[in-house]
């Protein structure tokens, strides 16, 4: 019997309770959805001091995905790698334009860049040498957009204020097709990601037309009416859907279904100026999947992320200026937003460096030495005596748990020894105000707080007064601390009068109280305004 | 059927059996035998008819005799009984006809083995009350120490060893050579005479101290005695009685020599070599005990810390934060086991060198005292109707769950994470506890008192029980639910997902439970409570709240008015009023459309309101302590306090009555008079067929539990009268008699003065009075014929009562 009893678990008769701060209310909804976490993980850097508004942004399809920004009569190229180092100067600038650049587009291999300007000229540049290789002149009015097809390296699409959409043969600097049909300025267009022959254009005549170069008589295949002047149009990656932006709304259309509107997103307050496709990495049950989103920016300064699978706005972000253009890099690591006052908000996400460079690392690490043979441990070796201690339990093993040791903070230990003043001083030194308040509350329940206050020496009293001046007006603690402040001043008036640093603390305290009083006054004013309104609303 | 329980386990020191596997605990009229391995009750020794004051286990005369289980018990009923507690069986009864406050049997060790043929008498020293000579003697000295010859079953002649004013505790030395008492500032020690003869002269010495001595202990081997006093000092006299107890002739000579000798610390030329003092305890010492080898001294007192002193060096070891004043420390024959009894009715079995708790024998916790400002908030007792549990708040900021059917503590929930210091002022009080109908949810409220106006806090806490075990875990804390106003009542909605808390600050809040069940990890339910609605009525303090049985109506008492609300939409439905004084208790009466309200103060009142007519049905001028209504039927029970004048004369010290009413009828269907009703509680319990023995082949529908101010309780069937009296006659010996039903149980006539309004209706009361008494056959057949039970039942009860009487007579 005695042996069995020896193995019995005994409970400690005395429980030790830590002095814990009061619990905080838990938010009923999560503060951040995983999605908004993703979008806020883009570390924002500003690229300032560009002249006038950023009319267009384009990412190179080839890694490391540099992007070009068109502003005023120049185009600047930026490297995202230098962005993450905090370098915001452009890597190169093309300024051989006679007028304001309206639109730019990279070819699918990222070697050529097409740019259109308001003089009606479309130029094709070599990205590296920055020399204009071709000048395409046919538009009679300002060109508003230029676009390289996704799957085609030889042709180019452009449209302008002459309401004509032109399909160019770049090499010969000649127009292949003049596509008539729009009745107002053509402002935007996009090429299908799945077919080299299909593209859409949007115009201020409220319509978006789908063109097919294979159609004989140069007429549009399909036409949808957005209802407002169309500012931007994009193909969604499937090639079957397009999104159009115009007025306050972004609309999604099903082209395969004959131009049916799928959804209209109307959460912007002002005109939506630009949209692009963003991608989000989702991790479901271990495997990663990419989901596409529509990023839209508007003159109201908001960027919205729209999930067109669930037809929901999943994130929105505010910027301090009207936004003109948006771009998202194909590797999902950079998103740039151009404003009307010459600032680019570039966001870059941390992530794995490119796969290519990783491959290079493999080549280097190929000749690594094979692991040495493991020798059996001998009692001559120190580790012999520690062997097996870090062994993890196998499933089915019977675990004998050791009682967790309660970790006592310094003030806990002092309170256990009934050294109340020392506990208060120690927790005041620790600068954690929740713990300070918790210790004060514990002292109140022991009816020792005022005794502690009366026993503090000058330095410690200064500590206490600093704490009070900082926290007495905080609503969470004010019920306790205001009363305490009053008592402290009342009890220690003599000491405070005789010491200059303490007087300084009292001045700070007074200042914070006055501040609080001001806030209360203004709040009461607001309440005075609101309460009749509420009364009226309640009467209905 | 009738169950009693909630008795004090700590009225007298317990005793270990010789193999340390059993612990004998005096529980009012019985001695309960607990297993030390499991902490559960094995059996009980029933026979005494008054409080058992001492239990002495017969030590083994040889190692082989360790298995023998014999003990002597002494009781206030004037008998000493000898038991074999393994069976259990009563072996012998000695009736000395005077109440025994204490008994020691020092001379077990002197008894030679029986087989030697020379049989010597066994003597006990008993502390009795002198009942006869009250006239001649001064009243002061009526308690006497006398010697009792247990072998011959009588007190020894006129031998009176000592007399004191109050009954004191006799302490015997482990060697059996000395015994002593404390008497104010003096210690009296007697030497047990060597011979077992009756009139051998008993020699005594007296040791003096300047403070009142509270407890004494003898060293097991040496002539050392330790005593604790009211100031917390521990005095140790070494070599006491060297002169007086030395021999017969040398007394005079040694005294002469010793006068010159240096005797440090010894006062008044006392008969001791030296006296040393230790002082650690801040309040009086209640526990003092030497370890069995004599190397250590255990001491404890009001502050709830067990101190282990190394006797030679005076070094201390502590077992702190026990949480309750210590009363007794008992060493067991097994060196690894000992027991401490605490004032909160718990006996902890300690594993000895490490002093960890092996098991706790948990009695019902004593009511906690709370300061004046929190009185009248209800008594903090909630009944779990389905499981037969009662939840009580305890002094160490816990809620104790106590099984009424099993008579043992089930679990404790720590409401405030604090250690209780028995000596300190009460600054944190658990004011209310409420249980949902199914017992899976609990809500508590607590108040932290402010220190000179700063730092006061009111908390409302919601708890949920785990799915399998009854362990409650905290789900939500609400700080200052009604700003700084105190909570007057907390009540659960019948469905369990709604709670109303009313406050003296003039509003009530309805809290709703949002339970998001997380399916993935084994159905873990996560409850969170949020405020659903706030209501107030003319800024009046809200004093009580109750939900109707279907949960569609919420009644909240706004002082003297009753406001009725729709709890879902928070719409005021109706206002009932007025009572004369503020209502403290509201209760819907089962499924009926009646509401009972009890108000206290100068004009106490019990009123029943009809919900269909929105008017007062009937009312009494009674001071109501508690109201309980059965869930299914329309009857309800009220515990009324009697005015002091009537309780002295007609009720023989009983100060309360339980009245059982039908809601529609102002005439009570039954009345029981009870003791210690102040602070009592009532609760109806649903009957779980497995837990309740069947009576006459049928189980009672519902049981009524009454708990008195000392937390002793009785559970009985309020409707079944025949079964009631039969089982009383069976269990008469057990009775703790907090419910003195035997004589005046249906003595409703004596309450006439209380109920003037309906006095003319009295004679029509439908029930039949019956008086279970010493001779049940006289009362079994009384009453009208249609109310008699079937003949078969009567016959067996009748015969049984006859049989019982015979056997008692034989003894």
From TrEMBL, chain A:
It is found in: Nucleus, Nucleolus. PROSITE patterns: WD_REPEATS_1, WD_REPEATS_2, WD_REPEATS_REGION. It holds the Pfam family UTP15_C. The keyword Phosphoprotein does not apply. Residues 392-533 form the U3 small nucleolar RNA-associated protein 15 C-terminal domain. It comes from the Eukaryota. Its main location: nucleus. Keywords: Nucleus, Repeat, rRNA processing, WD repeat. WD repeats lie at residues 136-178, 179-221. InterPro entries: U3_snoRNA-assocProt_15_C (IPR018983), WD40/YVTN_repeat-like_dom_sf (IPR015943), WD40_PAC1 (IPR020472), WD40_repeat_CS (IPR019775), WD40_repeat_dom_sf (IPR036322), WD40_rpt (IPR001680). This is U3 small nucleolar RNA-associated protein 15 C-terminal domain-containing protein. The lineage of its organism: Eukaryota, Viridiplantae, Streptophyta, Embryophyta, Tracheophyta.
Automatic annotation (TrEMBL), chain B:
WD repeats lie at residues 278-319. It comes from Hibiscus sabdariffa (roselle). Residues 396-655 form the WD repeat-containing protein 75 second beta-propeller domain. This is WD repeat-containing protein 75 second beta-propeller domain-containing protein. Keywords: Nucleus, Repeat, Ribosome biogenesis, rRNA processing, WD repeat. PROSITE patterns: WD_REPEATS_2 (PS50082), WD_REPEATS_REGION (PS50294). It is found in: Nucleus, Nucleolus. InterPro entries: Beta-prop_WDR75_2nd, WD40/YVTN_repeat-like_dom_sf, WD40_repeat_dom_sf, WD40_rpt. Its main location: nucleus. The keyword ATP-binding does not apply. PANTHER family: TRANSDUCIN FAMILY PROTEIN / WD-40 REPEAT FAMILY PROTEIN-RELATED, TRANSDUCIN FAMILY PROTEIN _ WD-40 REPEAT FAMILY PROTEIN-RELATED. SMART domains: WD40 (SM00320). The keyword rRNA processing applies.
């Amino acid at each position: 019997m005695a042996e069995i009893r020896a193995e019995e678990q005994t409970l400690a008769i005395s429980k030790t309770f830590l002095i814990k701060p009061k619990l905080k209310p838990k938010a009923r909804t999560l503060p951040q959805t995983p999605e908004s976490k993703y979008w806020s993980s883009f570390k924002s850097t500003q690229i300032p001091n560009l002249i006038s508004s950023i009319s267009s942004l384009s990412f190179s399809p080839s890694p490391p995905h540099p992007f070009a920004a068109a502003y005023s009569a120049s185009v600047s190229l930026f490297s995202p790698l230098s962005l993450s180092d905090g370098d915001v100067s452009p890597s190169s600038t093309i300024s051989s334009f006679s007028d304001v650049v309206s639109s730019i587009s990279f070819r699918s291999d990222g070697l050529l860049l097409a740019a259109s300007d308001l003089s009606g000229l479309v130029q094709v540049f070599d990205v590296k040498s920055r020399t204009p290789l071709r000048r395409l002149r046919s538009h009679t009015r300002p060109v508003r957009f230029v676009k390289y097809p996704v799957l085609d390296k030889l042709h180019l699409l452009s449209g302008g204020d002459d309401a004509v959409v032109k399909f160019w043969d770049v090499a010969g600097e000649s127009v292949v097709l003049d596509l008539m049909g729009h009745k107002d300025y053509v402002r935007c267009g996009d090429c299908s990601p799945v077919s080299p022959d299909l593209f859409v254009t949007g115009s201020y005549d409220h319509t978006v037309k789908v063109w097919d170069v294979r159609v004989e008589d140069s007429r549009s295949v399909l036409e949808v009416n957005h209802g407002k002047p169309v500012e931007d149009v994009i193909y969604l990656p499937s090639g079957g859907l397009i999104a159009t932006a115009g007025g306050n709304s972004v609309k999604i259309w099903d082209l395969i279904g004959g131009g049916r509107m799928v959804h209209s997103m109307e959460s912007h307050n002002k005109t939506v100026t630009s949209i692009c496709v963003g991608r989000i990495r989702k991790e479901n049950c271990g495997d990663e999947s990419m989901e596409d989103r529509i990023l839209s920016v508007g003159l109201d300064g908001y960027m919205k992320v729209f999930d067109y699978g669930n037809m929901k706005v999943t994130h929105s972000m505010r910027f301090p200026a009207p936004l003109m253009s948006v771009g998202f890099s194909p590797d999902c690591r950079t998103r740039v937003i151009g404003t009307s006052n010459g600032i680019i908000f570039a966001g870059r996400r941390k992530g794995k460096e490119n796969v290519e460079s990783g491959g290079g690392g493999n080549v280097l690490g190929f000749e690594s030495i094979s692991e040495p043979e493991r020798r059996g441990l001998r009692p001559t070796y120190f580790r012999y005596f520690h062997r097996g201690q870090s062994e993890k339990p196998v499933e089915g093993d019977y675990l004998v748990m050791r009682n967790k040791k309660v970790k006592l903070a310094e003030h806990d230990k002092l309170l256990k020894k009934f050294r109340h003043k020392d506990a208060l001083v120690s927790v005041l030194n620790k600068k954690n105000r929740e713990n300070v308040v918790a210790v004060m509350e514990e002292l109140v329940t022991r009816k020792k707080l005022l005794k502690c206050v009366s026993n503090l020496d000058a330095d410690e009293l200064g500590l206490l007064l600093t704490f009070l001046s900082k926290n007495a007006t905080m609503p969470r603690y004010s019920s306790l601390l205001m009363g305490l402040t009053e008592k402290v001043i009342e009890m220690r008036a003599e000491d405070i009068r005789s010491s200059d640093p303490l007087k300084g603390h009292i001045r700070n305290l007074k200042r914070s109280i006055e501040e609080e009083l001001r806030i209360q006054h203004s709040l009461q004013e607001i309440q005075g305004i609101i309460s009749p309104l509420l009364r009226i609303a309640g009467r209905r | 059927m009738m169950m009693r329980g909630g008795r004090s386990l700590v009225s007298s020191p317990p005793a270990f059996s010789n193999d340390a596997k059993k612990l004998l605990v005096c529980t009012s009229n019985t001695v309960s035998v607990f297993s030390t391995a499991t902490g559960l009750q094995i059996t009980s020794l029933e026979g005494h008819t008054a409080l058992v004051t001492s239990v002495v286990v017969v030590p083994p005369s040889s190692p082989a005799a360790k298995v023998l289980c014999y003990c002597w018990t002494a009781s206030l009923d004037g008998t000493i009984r000898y038991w074999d507690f393994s069976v259990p069986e009563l072996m012998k009864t000695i009736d000395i006809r005077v109440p025994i406050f204490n008994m020691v049997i020092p001379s077990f060790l002197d008894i030679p083995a029986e087989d030697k043929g020379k049989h010597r008498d066994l003597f006990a020293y008993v502390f009795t009350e002198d009942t006869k000579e009250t006239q001649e003697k001064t009243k002061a000295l009526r308690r006497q120490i006398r010697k009792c010859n247990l072998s011959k079953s009588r007190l020894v002649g006129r031998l009176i060893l000592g007399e004191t004013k109050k009954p004191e505790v006799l302490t015997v030395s482990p060697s059996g050579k000395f015994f002593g008492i404390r008497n104010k500032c003096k210690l009296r020690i007697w030497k047990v005479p060597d011979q077992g003869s009756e009139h051998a002269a008993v020699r005594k010495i007296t040791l003096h101290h300047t403070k009142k001595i509270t407890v004494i202990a003898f060293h097991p081997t040496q002539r050392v005695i330790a005593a604790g006093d009211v100031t917390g000092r521990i005095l140790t006299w070494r070599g006491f009685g060297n002169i007086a107890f030395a021999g017969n002739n040398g007394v005079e000579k040694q005294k002469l020599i010793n006068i010159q000798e240096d005797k440090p610390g010894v006062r008044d030329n006392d008969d001791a070599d030296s006296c040393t003092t230790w002082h650690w305890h801040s309040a009086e010492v209640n526990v003092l005990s030497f370890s069995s080898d004599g190397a250590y001294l255990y001491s404890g007192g009001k502050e709830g810390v067990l101190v282990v002193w190394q006797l030679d060096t005076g070094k201390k070891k502590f077992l702190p934060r026990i949480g309750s004043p210590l009363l007794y420390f008992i060493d067991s024959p097994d060196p690894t086991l000992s027991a401490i009894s605490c004032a909160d009715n718990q006996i902890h079995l300690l594993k000895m060198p490490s002093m960890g708790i092996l098991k706790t024998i948990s009695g019902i916790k004593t009511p906690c005292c709370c300061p004046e400002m929190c009185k009248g908030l209800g008594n903090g007792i909630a009944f779990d109707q389905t499981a037969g549990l009662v939840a009580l708040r305890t002094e160490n900021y816990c809620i104790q769950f106590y099984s009424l059917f099993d008579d043992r503590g089930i679990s404790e929930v720590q409401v405030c994470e604090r250690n209780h210091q028995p000596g300190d002022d009460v600054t944190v009080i658990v004011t209310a506890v409420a249980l949902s109908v199914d017992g899976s949810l609990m809500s508590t409220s607590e108040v932290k008192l402010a220190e000179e106006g700063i730092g006061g806090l009111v908390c409302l806490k919601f708890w949920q029980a785990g799915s399998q075990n009854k362990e409650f875990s905290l789900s939500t804390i609400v700080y200052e639910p009604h700003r700084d106003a105190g909570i007057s009542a907390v009540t659960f909605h019948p469905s369990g997902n709604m709670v109303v808390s009313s406050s003296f600050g003039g509003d009530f809040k309805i809290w709703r439970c949002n339970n998001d069940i997380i399916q993935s990890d084994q159905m873990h339910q996560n409850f969170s409570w949020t405020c659903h609605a706030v209501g107030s009525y003319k800024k009046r303090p809200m004093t009580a709240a109750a939900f109707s049985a279907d949960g569609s109506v919420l009644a909240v008492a706004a002082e003297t008015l009753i406001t009725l609300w729709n709890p879902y939409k928070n719409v005021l439905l109706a206002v009932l009023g007025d009572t004369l004084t503020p209502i403290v208790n509201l209760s819907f009466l089962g499924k009926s459309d009646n509401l009972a309200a009890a108000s206290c103060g100068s004009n106490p009142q019990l009123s029943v309101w009809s919900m269909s007519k929105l008017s007062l049905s009937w009312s009494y001028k009674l001071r109501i302590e508690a109201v309980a209504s059965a869930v299914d039927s329309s009857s309800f029970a009220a515990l009324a306090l009697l005015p002091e004048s009537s309780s002295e004369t007609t009720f023989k010290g009983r100060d309360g009555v339980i009245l059982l009413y039908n809601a529609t009828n102002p005439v009570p269907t039954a009345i029981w008079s009870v003791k210690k009703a102040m602070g009592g509680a009532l609760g109806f319990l649903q009957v779980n067929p497995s837990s309740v023995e069947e009576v006459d082949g049928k189980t009672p529908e519902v049981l009524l539990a009454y708990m008195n101010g000392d937390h002793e309780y009785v559970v009985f069937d309020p409707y079944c009268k025949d079964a009631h009296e039969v089982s009383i006659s069976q269990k008469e010996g057990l009775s703790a008699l907090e419910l003195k039903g035997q004589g005046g149980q249906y003595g409703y006539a004596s309450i006439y003065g209380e109920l003037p309004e309906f006095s003319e209706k009295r004679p029509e009361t439908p029930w039949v009075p019956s008086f279970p008494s010493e001779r049940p056959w006289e009362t079994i057949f009384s009453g009208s014929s249609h109310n008699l039970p079937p003949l078969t039942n009567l016959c067996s009860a009748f015969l049984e009562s006859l049989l019982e009487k015979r056997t008692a007579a034989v003894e």
